[in-house]
Structures are given as structure tokens and as C-alpha cells.
Amino acid sequence: MSEKLGIMVGTDKHLDYVINLTNAAQAKGKTIEIFFTGFGVHLTQRPEFEQLVGKAKLSVCDVSFRAYGLSGDVPGVGFKDFATQARNAEMMIECDRFIAF
Amino acid sequence: MKKVAVVIKDTKQQYEGLRVSLGALLDNVEIQMFVLNHEIENMDEAYHDNMEFIDEMEGERFSNNSANVEKYGFVHTTLKQAAQRLQAADLVIPF
Amino acid sequence: MKILHLLRSEPDETVEQLIESMTDNEDETTVKPLFKPNMDWSRLVDEIFSHDKVISWW
């Protein structure tokens, strides 16, 4: 089984880091999970966000998303991937490495 | 059980750090939450209730800010002591 | 233990103190500033998985 990298994105400052790291990790055969929470949910509205689709399992904190008045579809994020903090905690427990941006 | 340290320095992230801490506690993660350098800016009902929930769930709260210790019951820590706890944690999540 | 410290931005005094205090003789410590140009992301992935602990500071 491939090594798993968990990325929690809690700020809206480093989408470039998230994309670069995801691309590099995917090229090395890693499994990647990304959870967007707090200010990080704003990144779902950026055009570059689409670059993550198909490369990582993406999920978004539903409470944060609605708290910031966001709505509508997010590329690569299905209905079930609008999740609670439990998803974040699962990443902490299950991933081989966990990084916060 | 995984041991996670949530370290909150950015005042705008104080509530989010608390929320992530609580979410992890509910999922059977051991949590130590550190609020560094600043007093809790907005001790509203939501922060207060969640902070009490952290205590009930046996999470630990530390701060190097004396107002947080005196007013809100955080355990005092120096930066150096905090660093030692971070070294012992499995994961460190800065906010 | 091998610890990898990632710096998302220029470190302030708090970050410098925390990293310094976390560094003892038994640990192997690497500090990687992500904000510097020409970052080798492929190498970073190897480093992330070859270290026991990774902390991405502010």
C-alpha cells in the first residue's frame, strides 16, 4: 500500500504550496488527502484549485464553508466530502505524514 | 492513541484552532492546545463553551500569556516548556 | 528522531525559539524554508517521508 500524506489547509495563503506538494507527492506514487477548513475554504473559489482534482482526495469543512457564506459546487468535492472535523481527525490518525498549511 | 499538539499564535485563528482541537478529541485523539503570545481576543459564548468541552473531554490547554492563565484557566507554560511538549507529540499543527 | 521543520514564511522570534528549544543532541533536525525560490518539491516529498516528524510552521 502506498504511503499516505494528509494536508490540512487552514489558511488562504499557500495554495501554491498545496498544489506543488500534491503534484510532487502524486508523481512519487503517494496517496494524498487534503482537508480545507477555516480560512482555507476560500481557496476552493480560486481557479487554480482545479489543479488538485484527480490528484488527491479533497474534502471541505462544511461548517467553515457555510460560515464564510460560500455555496455551490466545488470541483472534485462531492456531497459527502463536505465533511465535519471528524474527517480531519481521521487524517491525523490514518496518514503516515500530516502537514498543515 | 495519537498525541496531537495544536499551537495557536495567529489571533485570527484562535477559534479555528479550538474547533480543530475539539474535533480531534471527539475522535479519540489526545490533544494539547497551546495559545501563544496573545490573550484570547474574543471570549464569546461559543469559545467559552467549546473550551469547557475541551476540559470535560480531558484535553489540555496551555498558554504563555498570563491573562489566559488568570482569566480563563489555561495552564501556564514558557515557550521552552511548550517546545518540550511539542517534541513529545506525534503531530504538531500550527495555527 | 529526525525532525523536519518547514517554514511557510520568514520565521519570527517565536518560531526560531521553538525550533531551537526542540533541537537536542539526540535529534537530527532539518529546516526547510518553503518561501525561497527554486524549491525542489520532489526532494521535499522524499524528506517528508524520511523524517519521523514534520512541522509546518507559520
What report would you give on this structure?
The complex is a heterotrimer of chains A (101), B (95) and C (58). Chain A has three helices and five strands, in the order βαββαβαβ. Chain A has 101 residues and is α/β, with parallel strands linked by helices. Chain A has one domain (4-100): Hypothetical Protein Ychn, Chain: A (3-Layer(aba) Sandwich), CATH 3.40.1260.10. With 95 residues, chain B is an alpha/beta fold. Chain B has one domain: 3-Layer(aba) Sandwich (Hypothetical Protein Ychn, Chain: A), CATH 3.40.1260.10. Helices cover 44% and strands 23% of the residues of chain B. The model of chain B has no long low-confidence stretch (mean pLDDT 97). Chain C has 58 residues and is of the alpha/beta class. Chain C has two helices and three strands. Chain C starts with a strand and ends with a strand. Chains in contact: A-B, A-C, B-C. Chain B binds chain C through residues 9-10, 36-37, 79-80, 82-84, 86-87, 90-92, 94, and chain C through 3, 14, 17-18, 21-22, 24, 27, 53, 55-58.
Strand content of chain C: 25-35%
Strand order within the widest beta sheet of chain A: 4-3-2-1-5
CATH superfamily label of chain A: DsrEFH-like
**What is the number of helices of chain A?**
3
Class by helix and strand content of chain C? Answer: alpha/beta
From the N-terminal CA to the C-terminal CA of chain C, the straight-line distance is 22 Å
Describe the sheet with the most strands of chain C. 3 strands, parallel
Proportion in helices of chain C: 25-40%
The description of the largest β-sheet of chain A is:
5 strands, parallel
Give the total of beta strands of chain C. 3
Distance between the termini of chain A: 26 Å
Percent of residues in beta strands of chain A: 15-25%
What is the strand arrangement across the widest sheet of chain C? 2-1-3
Q: What is the count of DSSP helices of chain C, taking H or I runs of 4+ residues?
A: 2
CATH topology of chain A: Hypothetical Protein Ychn, Chain: A
Overall domain count of chain C: 1
Number of DSSP strands of chain A? Answer: 5
As residue ranges, the low-confidence spans of chain C are: none
